[in-house]
Every structure is written in C-alpha cells, then in structure tokens.
Amino acid sequence: MASTFMGLETARRGLTAQQSALYTTGNNIANANTLGYTRQRVDLQQSQSFPSVGQNAPMIPGQMGTGVEAGSVVRVRETFLDTQYRSESSKLGYWENRAAALSDLETIMNEPSDSGLAAAMDSFWESLQDMAVDPQNAGARAVVRQRGIAVAETFNYLHQTVSAEKADAKNELGVSEKAMNTLLSQLDQINKQIGSVEPNGYLPNDLYDKRDSILDELSQYANIKVSYEASGGNALAQAEGKAVVTLVDDSGNALGTLVDTDGVHQIKVNHNVDDTAVESISIGDTVIDINNFNSTGKLKSVVESYGYKDENGQLAGIYNDMLTELDNLAYTFATEFNKVHEEGLSPNEITDGDQAISFFADSESGSIGEREGFASRITISEDIKNSLDNIVNADPSNPTLGDATYVSKLADIFNNNYDYGNNSEQSNFRNYFEGVIGSMAVSAQEANKMTANSATLQQTVDNRRMSVSSVSLDEEMSNMIQFQQAYNASARMVTVMDEMLDKIINGMGVGGR
C-alpha cells in the first residue's frame, strides 16, 4: 500500500514545481525589455506513478499519481520564423546599401539642375552661338574659353567625387569583412560554451539567445543557412547543439562553411592586382569567383558599389559604370570637338600659318591619350589658355577672319550623333547623357522600392516572431496568478496532510482510556 506520508511528498512536489514556474515568470518579467531575450517556460510533467510495474509491486486497485515535477526550462521560439527573418534580413541589407549608393550618386550628378554637367555643356554651346554672331569679338571668345574651362572642371569634379565615393565603398568593404569575421568568432566562442554546458544536462538559454542575435546580425551581410550538431554527453532532447553556419547562394547551394564544430573559416575579399576591383571572395581555403558569388546581402551590395571584374574581365559596378560613362562622354566630346577645331583656322593661324590647334587636352600628356580616367584629366589646351586668338573662327577654304558658318560647326557638335565607345547606338551628347542619368534614376527608384518592400516583409516576419517569443506582461501576470494559486493550494494540501497525520499519531489508540 502507499506510504502514510505519500500525500506530504505529493504536496511538496507541487510546491517546488509551482515555485520554479513562478521564478521563471519573474525572470520573464525582469527581461521584458531586454533586447534579444526569448521568453521561457517551465515544462511541468507528472512524476512517476505508484506503484511501478514489477513482480513485487503491491496489489492495489490502480496506479496513483505522485505529483508533478519541473522537467526543464525551455525557450518559446519558432525556428521557421527565424529562418524567414534572416532571409528577409539579407535582402534588406542588400537593397538598403544599394539604395544608399545610388542616392549618393544622384546627389553627385545633381541632374537636372543649374549646376550640373548638362548645364555646363549648355552654357558652352550658348557661348559658341554668341561667338557665331560676332566671331571677331574678343569678349565672345573669352566667354567660350571660360565656358570650356567650366566644362572641363565639371568633368574633373564629377570624376573625382565619384572616385572618392568608390574609395569610401572600399573602406566600407573592409569594415563589412571585419564585422563578419568578428561575428563569426563570437559564434565560435558561444558554440564552445554551449558545448561545455549541454553535455551536463542543462539548457543554456541565455547563450541560445545571444547566438540567435548574432545570427540575425550576420544575416544582413549574406544569405546563410544554419544547422545544428548535437553536443553529446548527457544533453537533453531539447538541447539545440552547436551551430553550423553555411554561406549559400540565392538558390540554397552551399558556397562555403563559415562556422562549424572545428572552428571559424574567415571570410576575405580579394582585390585585383591594381586594387581597383574585387576578383573573388575567400572562405577559409575556398575561393569563390566574384561572378559566382550570388549570395544576397550587404557584402554583395558593397562589392557591386565598389566595383568588380565581370566575366569579360571588364570593370563593372555602380561607381565604375558611372566613371566609365563620364570617361566616354569626356573623351568623345573632346575628341570630336578637337577634330573640328583643328580643321579650322584661328586668327593666329591665319597670320602665322596652319598649326592644327586643339581646344581640349589631357592634363597629363598634353594630347588626348587613353580613354580610361580621361574625365579626371580633361582640360583646356595650353594654346587656348595662352591666347584667345588661337580659338578658330574661320574656314580653311575661305580664310576670312571671323566666319560665323565655321563657328556654327563647333556648336553643331552638340547635336551630331556619335558612338561613345561602347558600340551602342549612336546619339548626340544630350540624349546620351540623358540616357545615363535616366538609367541611374530608374535603378535608384527600383532600389528604393525594393528596400521598402524588404523592410515591410522583414517587419511582418519580425512581428510574427515577436508574438511567439517576446514577453507579454499581461500574459506573465496571468501566469503569475495561476502559479501563485497552485502554490497556495499545494501549501494548503500540506496543512491538510499535517492535520490528518496529527489525528493518526496523536488521536488513534486512545479511545476507552
């Protein structure tokens, strides 16, 4: 038969279990505003019934319950929502950085405006039209020279400013690389701590929370997949184990392991020989060609902003593309303008003989040389700087000083169609530049739209995750009252059992005395 004191033990177990639940509720309330904290609960389970099955088990009508016991303290968290959140986080990290880069580029180009490249070119064209009205007017030629200087300086400024933004992107690339490796090292340390706790039969919930927060932060930089490997020993069934973090592409294919049970495989961004573009990404000993690095995240976006070598070995990227377009515009315009200018005659050439004077030049080599980087080097030739009479205003076939018809040919360059060095359909300067600015604007608009969409999706998933994992003070207050009442009932049960035992011990066997 059951022990006389069995009821006391059942009540004691009730007190202990409800007390544990109250302690956990108090911990939830205390951490209601702690960033990254996941609410916890005590898994209450029945203790083993009496009697247990066996040959010598007492013959009683049936098994009786022996109370309750606290199984373990577990986190209330949904892994599927974590996976969704990290997926949206990587997309948001990519589009946010891309939108910021394009926004900076729009600010630099400043089109349409009264101070951009298009305005400088229009002013130069207008000065040529004014000179055509009175080709012999020294003041008109002075305005042409000054407006030409303004065009060259505008190209120089834009190229230098975009190059500075590219340099900033390179620094940001280094910061992102360092930040990722720091997070990976932290994950490795937490893995080791978890591996030392779980085999002893405990659940290190605080370490789980810290690890999940780091994984959330890491997911901003690249698309990651997280799996878990058991710690072994006497680990509980609820133990999560050590995290294995794999960098994957957008199709879910593994590109390399970042963290496993062996330690950290650091990520490294590899540049080309002249340090102007990214060639590959290394994960430990694994080298991934940049054109195969299709893992959406901030890291990929920064690489695309700074620049990389495409499959054809050409420089590509947001800033590189704009630098190339500026070089194409400056080189084509200067070359074509010089052709017409060199064919005409200036007052000095009429007096001293044909010299084929160039209007624009390369600040490094004098004559126009390489296309690459030319927008940063375009300037007015020394001949034009030294004398206004070196500006052409006469046709060689009719060397009359002050030929408005030939000056108009210089102005017509703005409206003639040219190929700007990328084998594209020919167009005039204005249309080509409008296409460049329009393409940039469309890309910026798309980036802003995708940033808003990604932010909305991430927030939606985060709200769902918070509804599961965050602390609700109303719910915790209800739980506190529930566990308090259960604790009080168990305490009352102890009192009842005490009165019963008092009657048995002190009241039985005294009848008839």
How does the SSE layout of this entry go?
Blueprint: H1 6-30, E1 40-46, E2 68-75, H2 79-109, H3 117-133, H4 138-197, H5 205-218, E3 224-229, E4 242-248, E5 254-260, E6 263-264, E7 267-271, E8 278-283, E9 286-289, H6 298-306, E10 308-309, E11 315-316, H7 318-343, H8 347-352, E12 360-362, E13 378-380, H9 382-386, H10 404-412, H11 429-469, H12 473-507
Helix pairs in contact: 1-12, 2-4, 2-5, 2-6, 2-11, 3-4, 3-10, 4-5, 4-6, 4-7, 7-11
What does this structure look like?
It is built from twelve helices and 13 strands. Strand 10 and strand 11 (315-316) form a beta hairpin. Helix 2 packs antiparallel against helix 4 and helix 4 runs antiparallel to helix 6 (298-306). With 513 residues, it is of the alpha+beta class. The relative contact order is 0.14. The mean pLDDT is 88. The chain has helices at 6-30, 79-109, 117-133, 138-197, 205-218, 298-306, 318-343, 347-352, 382-386, 404-412, 429-469, 473-507, and strands spanning 40-46, 68-75, 224-229, 242-248, 254-260, 263-264, 267-271, 278-283, 286-289, 308-309, 315-316, 360-362, 378-380.
Strand line-up of the largest beta sheet: 3-4-5-6
SSE run: HEEHHHHEEEEEEEHEEHHEEHHHH
Question: What is the β-strand count?
Answer: 13
Distance between the termini: 30 Å
* Oligomeric grouping of the chains: single chain
Structural class: alpha+beta
Rg of Cα set? 39 Å
Number of helices: 12
> Mean pLDDT, nearest integer?
88
Q: Largest sheet, if any? A: 4 strands, antiparallel
